[in-house]
């Protein structure tokens, strides 16, 4: 298939339950599908993604490959973001970066969506599928503001409805439908004749540049929002609050970015890590106090023994907090 010099890129974001959803979606693309397809599916840093590439190649008519840095893309091919790296697109090319995590993820959906909006404006078609929390909502908002099309999987059709529900609530999807109906819709949408895109809002351009540069800077984040009295749970830096309609987001000057839901989830994880360290230290302290108490002279007051007993009280409290924290630390 010859390369389309003016493509209508399709960008897709998925998380929990994504493999099955993507498999069902790509099976609907015809061999002569006239658009490039870019996918971010959340995966662990130590997961290669080769399994998903193989599954998508076996499921449909289009070739699926991992995106590579500075690779020229073409219509009729599926490009999957590689593990532990963000995938972005500029005019005609793919960029792969090791930028800071966004919404606790790398690859993350928002950077891909924003880059597509900046590069292709109203020609972009964004799709959000199954997943926890709300990665993809801000990126979909960028696509919407640039005149692109926003598609959300029907939450009742999604294994994990959080991500499509967030897009519907915060952005307002142009189309909300089960995966089974997306293939026919996309085949219609990519055939449209569109007017020239208008200018891209400056804040979307700034955030897209942050992802491309890998590092952010103070002037960039100060242009996006107001500094708030919170710290980035990943690097400890100061956070700036960005307001997008009903969506609250946070960025630090090194590039980490969170929606309020993702920030809360990551704070919970860090609290749990801190509690485990505290538990270990109290248990070590108690063990030392017990040994010291055993060596204590019988004529001496048993202050050491009492301190060991007091340590047990703290240990029990921390264990109770860990049990409560564990209930809130899942979901990504």
Account of the protein in words:
The protein is of the alpha/beta class. Helix content is 41%, strand content 19%. The chain has ten helices and 13 strands. It is elongated, with a radius of gyration of 24 Å. GO terms for molecular function: phosphorelay response regulator activity; protein-glutamate methylesterase activity. This is protein-glutamate methylesterase. The active site is at residues 15, 42, 135.
Task: List key phrases describing it.
332 residues; 7-stranded parallel sheet; Rossmann fold; Sig_transdc_resp-reg_Me-estase; 41% helix; Chemotax_prot-Glu_Me-esterase; single chain; 2 domains; EC 3.1.1.61; alpha/beta
Q: Quote the average pLDDT.
A: 91
- Strands across the major sheet, in which order? 3-4-2-1-7-8-9
> Any idea how many domains?
2
N-to-C terminal Cα separation, in Å? 38 Å
Coarse shape: elongated
CATH-assigned fold name of the largest domain: Rossmann fold
Protein name: protein-glutamate methylesterase
Keywords: Chemotaxis, Hydrolase
GO molecular function, one term: phosphorelay response regulator activity
Active site: 15, 42, 135
């Amino acid at each position: 298939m010859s390369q389309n010099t003016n493509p209508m890129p399709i960008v897709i974001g998925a998380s929990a339950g994504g493999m099955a959803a993507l498999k069902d979606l790509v099976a609907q693309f015809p061999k002569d599908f006239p658009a490039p397809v870019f996918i971010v599916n959340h995966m662990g840093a130590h997961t290669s993604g080769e399994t998903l590439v193989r599954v998508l190649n076996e499921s449909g008519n289009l070739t699926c490959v991992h995106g590579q840095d500075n690779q020229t893309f073409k219509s009729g091919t599926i490009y999957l973001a590689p593990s532990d790296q963000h995938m972005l697109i500029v005019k005609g090319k793919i960029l792969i970066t090791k930028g800071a995590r966004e919404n606790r993820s790398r690859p993350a959906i928002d950077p891909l969506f924003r880059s597509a909006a900046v590069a292709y404006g109203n020609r972009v078609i964004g799709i959000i599928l199954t997943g926890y929390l709300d990665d993809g909502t801000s990126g979909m908002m960028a696509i919407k503001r640039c005149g692109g099309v926003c598609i959300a999987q029907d939450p009742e059709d999604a294994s994990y409805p959080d991500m499509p529900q967030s897009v519907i609530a915060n952005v307002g999807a142009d189309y909300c439908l089960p995966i089974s109906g997306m293939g026919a819709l996309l085949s219609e949408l990519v055939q449209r004749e569109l007017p020239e895109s208008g200018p891209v809002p400056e804040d979307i351009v700034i955030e897209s540049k942050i992802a491309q540069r890998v590092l952010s800077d103070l002037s960039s984040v100060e242009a996006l929002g107001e500094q708030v009295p919170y710290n980035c749970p990943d690097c400890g830096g100061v956070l700036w609050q960005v307001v997008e309609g009903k969506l609250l987001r946070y960025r630090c000057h090194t590039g980490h970015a969170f929606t309020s839901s993702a920030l809360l989830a990551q704070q919970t994880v860090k609290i749990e890590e801190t509690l485990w360290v505290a538990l270990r230290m109290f248990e070590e302290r108690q063990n030392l106090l017990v040994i010291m108490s055993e060596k204590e002279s019988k004529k001496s007051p048993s202050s050491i023994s009492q301190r060991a007993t007091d340590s047990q009280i703290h240990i029990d409290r921390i264990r109770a907090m860990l049990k409560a924290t564990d209930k809130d630390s899942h979901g990504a």
